[in-house]
Automatic annotation (TrEMBL):
<dbReference type="GO" id="GO:0006218">
    <property type="term" value="P:uridine catabolic process"/>
</dbReference>
<protein>
    <submittedName>
        <fullName>Uridine phosphorylase 1</fullName>
    </submittedName>
</protein>
<feature type="binding site">
    <location>
        <position position="209"/>
    </location>
    <ligand>
        <name>substrate</name>
    </ligand>
</feature>
<feature type="binding site">
    <location>
        <position position="207"/>
    </location>
    <ligand>
        <name>substrate</name>
    </ligand>
</feature>
<feature type="binding site">
    <location>
        <position position="83"/>
    </location>
    <ligand>
        <name>phosphate</name>
    </ligand>
</feature>
<comment type="similarity">
    <text>Belongs to the PNP/UDP phosphorylase family.</text>
</comment>
<dbReference type="Pfam" id="PF01048">
    <property type="entry name" value="PNP_UDP_1"/>
</dbReference>
<dbReference type="InterPro" id="IPR035994">
    <property type="entry name" value="Nucleoside_phosphorylase_sf"/>
</dbReference>
<feature type="domain" description="Nucleoside phosphorylase">
    <location>
        <begin position="44"/>
        <end position="283"/>
    </location>
</feature>
<feature type="binding site">
    <location>
        <begin position="127"/>
        <end position="130"/>
    </location>
    <ligand>
        <name>phosphate</name>
    </ligand>
</feature>
<dbReference type="InterPro" id="IPR010059">
    <property type="entry name" value="Uridine_phosphorylase_euk"/>
</dbReference>
<dbReference type="InterPro" id="IPR000845">
    <property type="entry name" value="Nucleoside_phosphorylase_d"/>
</dbReference>
<dbReference type="GO" id="GO:0004850">
    <property type="term" value="F:uridine phosphorylase activity"/>
</dbReference>
<dbReference type="GO" id="GO:0009166">
    <property type="term" value="P:nucleotide catabolic process"/>
</dbReference>
<dbReference type="GO" id="GO:0005829">
    <property type="term" value="C:cytosol"/>
</dbReference>
Length: 299
């Protein structure tokens, strides 16, 4: 049975209106948000990714998948906020989130509230990103199972009211399997795997790179750390998985994180693939998620 989004925030019911500031969406009447329901009530899937251009490309890609013949430029519904991009393609909402958990969590809070006010039924949120690989060939697509933080703990740690709050960080098995079954076709030419992900707050030192502006360890220490990651079943490193998994678990909304590796960190730190190859790699999660979405809507 499908269900709406019930958020764990008792304060929301005392708010007669709610301005989703970064999305520039005003929910003028939270009790009767029929305008919001009319515009967003059909949303079943929310795709998120770092950049607005990737989300625009994905919107156009999904247009085909959904059998929509529209050729107009996707409209950025959050353009007025100058922070994030928000597109809607039929029952799919697409939002950019910037780099890292702090920027991604801001837009995720607002998206979750939007799903609630719009009375969306049983939505799923999917991050479609890039990442560093740990012992896998560049171009491999990784669907995250457990998300580890930079302390190599399978949890999301966040300071709230001056206290350290620790929350679980994993993605629901059923969603992982539903996505994975659309990967590894003989024609794909790349592997799609399920693995654990390390999610850090820093691209450089936090991910054990030795090429940042500051570095107080050597290559041997870096490799030891990456091998420890590998032993924990970590095959990719990005910057949002712990936050995304923990916040969606708290909100009771299904989610997944599917990222393509653009460097094998056991071989180096620099991302050296050409922009063309990067663009081609970014299409790989599109393909898998496109098939998943096609499966959902039976087209
Ligand atoms: O979805 P993207 O490719 O933006 O995500 C990864 C993780 C960080 O946000 C960023 C670092 O370059 O790329
Ligand atoms: O190495 C990488 C590549 C992409 N994104 C990351 O966070 N790390």
């Amino acid at each position: 049975m499908s269900k709406g989004v019930e958020l764990k925030n008792p304060n929301l019911k005392n708010m007669s209106s709610d301005y989703l500031y970064h999305l520039t969406i005003n929910v003028a009447n939270t009790v009767d948000a029929s305008d919001i329901q009319q515009q967003f009530g059909d949303v079943k899937v929310v795709c998120m990714g770092g950049t607005s251009s990737r989300m625009r490309d994905l919107a156009l890609y999904l247009r085909n998948v959904l059998g929509n013949s529209d050729t107009s430029e996707p409209i950025d519904l959050a353009a007025g906020g100058h922070r994030y991009a928000l597109f809607k393609e039929g029952p799919v909402l697409l939002a950019s989130h910037g780099v890292g958990s702090s920027t991604a969590s801001v837009v995720l809070h607002e998206l979750l509230k939007l799903l609630k006010y719009a009375k969306c039924q049983d939505p799923v949120i999917i991050r479609i990103g890039t990442c560093g690989g740990v012992g896998v060939a560049p171009g491999t697509v990784v669907v995250t199972k457990n998300a580890f933080n930079g302390y190599l703990r399978n949890e999301h740690e966040i300071p709230i009211l001056g206290k350290r709050v620790v929350r679980p960080a994993y993605f629901p098995e059923q969603v992982i399997q539903d996505i994975l079954k659309h990967g590894n076709r003989s024609e794909d030419g790349f592997d799609t795997i399920i693995a654990n992900t390390m999610s850090t707050d820093c691209f450089y030192e936090g991910q054990g790179r030795i090429d940042g502006a500051v570095c107080e360890y050597d290559d041997a220490a870096k490799l030891e750390f990456l091998k420890e990651c590998h032993k924990l079943g970590i095959r990719n490193i990005e910057m949002e998985a712990t936050m995304l998994s923990s916040l969606t678990l708290q909100a009771g909304v299904k989610a997944a994180d599917i990222c393509v590796t653009i460097v094998n960190r056991l071989n180096g730190d620099q991302v050296e693939i050409t922009p063309e190859t990067k663009k081609a790699f970014e299409q790989r999660p599109f393909l898998i998620v496109g098939r998943y979405i096609q499966g959902l809507f039976g087209k």
